């Protein structure tokens, strides 16, 4: 748990399920906690939210649409030292790709998030 009482990802494979659970609970701050302070999130139309302030703004707007997140089929994380490549095939066929980094406390956070690399 972190200072807010939320579970941290002790394995990069935990990031996606935590994001889905927090999104469906409307917990924008919890979603943002899964990213490093300078993370980059592709938000469509060649736009990138950079840093947690922009990521928070994006998710806050996005969740007002009423969209529900689904876990999908995760591929095993590919870990090399302090970095991990995670990927999920969503129920609609979209494939995601993310890069996570192990933090000083041993938890994992995303550094780069590309929610739709292929369909």
* Count of DSSP H/I helices: 3
Percentage of residues in DSSP E strands = 35-45%
CATH topology: Nuclear Transport Factor 2, Chain: A
Helicity level: 10-25%
Named CATH architecture:
Roll
Biggest sheet descriptor: 6 strands, mixed
How confident overall, as mean pLDDT? Answer: 93
Number of strands: 6
Oligomer: single chain
The side-by-side strand order for the widest beta sheet comes to 2-1-6-5-4-3
Calculate the terminal CA-CA distance, rounded to whole Å.
35 Å
What report would you give on this structure?
There is one protein chain. This protein is 24% helix and 40% strand. The model has no long low-confidence stretch (mean pLDDT 93). The chain has helices spanning 15-24, 28-32, 51-63; strands at residues 35-44, 47-50, 73-80, 83-89, 95-102, 108-118. A six-stranded mixed beta sheet has the order 2-1-6-5-4-3. It has three helices and six strands; from the N terminus they run ααββαββββ. By secondary structure, the chain is of the alpha+beta class. A hairpin with a 5-residue loop joins strand 5 and strand 6 (108-118). The chain starts with 14 loop residues before the first helix and ends with a strand. It has a single domain, classed as Nuclear Transport Factor 2, Chain: A (Roll), CATH 3.10.450.50.
């Amino acid at each position: 748990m972190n200072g807010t009482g939320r579970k941290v990802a002790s394995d990069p494979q935990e990031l996606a399920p935590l994001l889905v659970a927090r999104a469906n609970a409307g917990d924008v701050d919890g979603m943002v906690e899964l990213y490093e302070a300078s993370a980059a999130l592709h938000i469509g139309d060649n736009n990138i939210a950079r840093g947690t302030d922009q990521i928070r703004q994006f998710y806050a707007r996005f969740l007002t649409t009423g969209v529900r997140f689904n876990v999908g089929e995760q591929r095993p994380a590919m870990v090399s030292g302090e970095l991990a490549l995670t990927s999920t095939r969503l129920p609609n066929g979209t494939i995601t790709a993310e890069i996570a980094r192990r933090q000083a406390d041993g938890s994992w956070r995303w550094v780069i998030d590309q929610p739709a690399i292929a369909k």
